[in-house]
Amino acid sequence: MGRNLRLSALAALILLGWGAGVSLAGSGDADGTYTVTVTKVELSTDGSNFITAFSGSSAINIASATAGAQAAGLVSGAAIPPGNYSTIRVTLGSTLLIKGFITISGNANYTNGGTDSNGFAVNIGDANPPSSGYTISTFTIPAANRVNTFTPPSFTVKEGSAATTCSITFNTAGVITNSGGTPTIGPPDVSVSVS
């Protein structure tokens, strides 16, 4: 017999394995938008056999103040069998939506509504993005990075006990980095605690 488990740390685990590549000096902020679509969340007690806690399609803006609550909503009410869970596997959709900029050599490289290699424009001679044209761009998440397996702090689900609670803090400052003069998107800093 299962019970309900609330995981608000889920969004943190979504991008932990997504490397940003080599970064040089300079960093930029996600300006209120860093959205991924979660399509599946699975849990495991042994790292090999998984149970599905969520299956569907849910966009989560982890730059939002409500990201933890959105992530918790994915698995809230899911029947999770008792056990000591040590592994989470998260499957993402193919796109990342982001709005932000980085200053490289005195010029703002900002998201412009484009896609992938056309997702940034340059505001020459100005370290800030312009007032018009600075908008959300769409980037493709490489297929190899869409299914991620994580080993967060383990948690135990006991029959008849209170729900496990995970707390999460996201920091999207510095997610746009300078990689050889080209803006590169990377994962946010994430803090997770389980109680």
Polypeptide structure, described:
By secondary structure, the protein is mainly beta. It has one domain (3-194). The chain is 8% helix and 52% strand. It has two helices and 15 strands. The chain has helices spanning 10-15, 67-75; strands at residues 3-4, 24-44, 50-61, 79-80, 83-85, 87-104, 107-111, 120-123, 137-140, 147-150, 155-157, 166-171, 173-179, 182-185, 189-194. Strands 2, 3, 6, 7, 8, 9, 10, 13 and 14 form a nine-stranded antiparallel β-sheet that branches. Strands 1-4 form a two-stranded antiparallel sheet. Strands 5-11 form a two-stranded antiparallel ribbon. A hairpin with a 5-residue loop joins strand 2 and strand 3. It starts with a strand and ends with a strand. Residues 1-27 have low confidence and may be disordered.
Shape: elongated
Rg for CA atoms: 18 Å
Our count of helices gives 2
Count of the separate structural domains: 1
Short structural summary:
This protein has 195 residues and is mainly β. It is built from two helices and 15 strands. The protein has helices at 10-15, 67-75; strands at 3-4, 24-44, 50-61, 79-80, 83-85, 87-104, 107-111, 120-123, 137-140, 147-150, 155-157, 166-171, 173-179, 182-185, 189-194.
Which keywords apply here?
two-stranded antiparallel ribbon, elongated, 2 helices, 8% helix, mainly beta, 195 residues, 15 strands, disordered N terminus
